[in-house]
Amino acid sequence: RKEVEQDPGPFNVPEGATVAFNCTYSNSASQSFFWYRQDCRKEPKLLMSVYSSGNEDGRFTAQLNRASQYISLLIRDSKLSDSATYLCVVTDNYGQNFVFGPGTRLSVLP
Amino acid sequence: TAGITQAPTSQILAAGRSMTLRCTQDMRHNAMYWYRQDLGLGLRLIHYSNTAGTTGKGEVPDGYSVSRANTDDFPLTLASAVPSQTSVYFCASSDSSGADQPQHFGDGTRLSIL
Lengths: 110, 114
Prior knowledge:
The complex is a heterodimer. Chain A is an all-beta fold. Chain A has no helices and eleven strands. In chain A, a hairpin with a 6-residue loop joins strand 4 (33-38) and strand 5 (45-49). The N and C termini of chain A lie far apart (37 Å). By secondary structure, chain B is an all-beta fold. In chain B, the strands form two sheets. In chain B, strands 2, 4, 5, 6, 9, 10 and 11 form a seven-stranded mixed beta sheet that branches. A four-stranded antiparallel beta sheet of chain B has the order 1-3-8-7, with no helix packed on it. In chain B, a hairpin with a 6-residue loop joins strand 5 and strand 6 (56-57). Classes of the chains: A mainly beta, B mainly beta. Chain A binds chain B through residues 31-32, 34, 36, 41-46, 49, 51, 87, 89, 95-98, 100-103, and chain B through 31, 33, 35, 41-43, 45, 48, 50, 88, 90, 92, 94, 96, 99-108.
């Protein structure tokens, strides 16, 4: 089993739609969790950290379920500019080894 | 703020030649990383350094070497390039002294080995 797995995608959604991405991780001692976005031929950029209590940043909501070893990202009111690949990232129990998921590609259509 | 700077942006290299990819950060982050990204395989860790003077092997270290003489610089060297090393290379850094500190990435180097 891969350390970090994500929805295979791609997701093609119309503007204004709500879309959710799922991510599971295998190391129960994982310490930190993040969502990154990566545009085509660009570097990954931090979208948001994921905290145990869940957190929201504008149209984006991240949830963490440690018992199920599961992370989610919800995007509300999708914009064309949200089109990108979304990467789930988990660190080890020391917070130093970052493990990236394979990514889920999102295309928001007009 | 510059953040992380990688050079060159892209390079075409003949097989068998050596090359050093440069990475410099100005955030005083203690940890630095080199990844390669290939279509369908995602980001794979090549080497990392938790602090100046130390380095470690990642998932795919063969054919690559690194050094960390100081906090800011983390060069990646291909001693004798092979076509399978054609990839996009990303350097990253993080402040691992605190909890929940993310990685920050450079713009990447696109390397083609012919």
